TrEMBL record:
Family: Belongs to the BlaI transcriptional regulatory family.
Gene3D superfamilies: Penicillinase repressor domain (1.10.4040.10), Winged helix-like DNA-binding domain superfamily/Winged helix DNA-binding domain (1.10.10.10)
Gene Ontology biological-process annotations: negative regulation of DNA-templated transcription
Organism expressing this protein natively: Sporobacter termitidis DSM 10068
Keywords: DNA-binding, Transcription, Transcription regulation
GO function terms (MF aspect): DNA binding
Pfam families per the UniProt record, alphabetical: Penicillinase_R
Protein name: Predicted transcriptional regulator
InterPro entries the record matches: BlaI_family, WH-like_DNA-bd_sf, WH_DNA-bd_sf
Length: 133
């Protein structure tokens, strides 16, 4: 995992979600197209967000074609960022207690008994794989 990962502001995360979903290098116009109907950002705003993401090491940029069009790609995987964000949230908000996190979701009705059962199955399967490895 990148040692320099930091939490992304919502606007930058929006750009990263588009890049992760694309799964390949894309032009800025692709990002603009994906933002239609969600965000009404000017081209300069998107370019500014991309520049920040490049500076932070989240996005890589390359020139492509005769017109030297910039092509953008994720330099940090979605899984890597999710692991970082999840760990940070669990540590900061729940004292690194998964039990407290799940209890909060359950009491707030964000999850139900079906979700708890899915979690139980996941944990049982993980435990079995861990002991057989």
């Amino acid at each position: 995992m990148h040692d320099s990962l930091r939490r992304l502001p919502d606007a930058e995360l929006e750009i990263m979600l588009i890049l992760w979903e694309a799964g390949k290098p894309v032009q800025r116009s692709y990002i603009d197209e994906q933002l239609k109907g969600k965000k009404d950002w000017a081209v300069s705003t998107v370019l500014n967000l991309l520049a920040r993401l490049i500076d932070r090491g989240f996005v890589a940029v390359a020139r492509q074609g005769a017109g030297k069009m910039n092509i953008y790609s994720a330099a940090v995987s979605e899984q890597e960022y999710l692991e970082f964000e999840s760990k940070t949230m669990l540590e900061k908000l729940y004292g690194n207690s998964l039990k407290n996190f799940v209890a909060t979701l359950y009491s707030g009705k964000a999850i139900d008994d079906r979700d708890i059962n899915e979690l139980r199955v996941f944990l049982d399967e993980h435990r079995k794989r861990g002991t057989n490895a």
